[in-house]
Specification:
By secondary structure, this protein is an all-alpha fold. It has one domain. The protein is built from three helices and no strands. The two termini are 20 Å apart.
């Protein structure tokens, strides 16, 4: 159980690092992307979310398999 918690914390840490790269390196591009996200429809955001989930699961499957 402790190994699972450790892996989860490492994963969250890596996610936070990756999400911070674009705002740090190119804040103007990040701001434009956020404006587009705010003005997008719920359908488009959900579609992006399900695609992201699917790709993440595929990557996890190939890494762990």
């Amino acid at each position: 159980m402790q190994e699972l918690l450790h892996s989860l914390l490492v994963s969250i840490s890596l996610l936070m690092i990756l999400e911070g790269v674009l705002p740090f390196l190119a804040p103007d591009i990040w701001r434009k992307i956020m404006i587009k996200a705010i003005t997008s429809s719920d359908f488009n955001l959900r579609l992006l979310g399900v695609i992201s989930i699917f790709l993440g699961l595929c990557l996890l499957y190939f890494i762990r398999g």
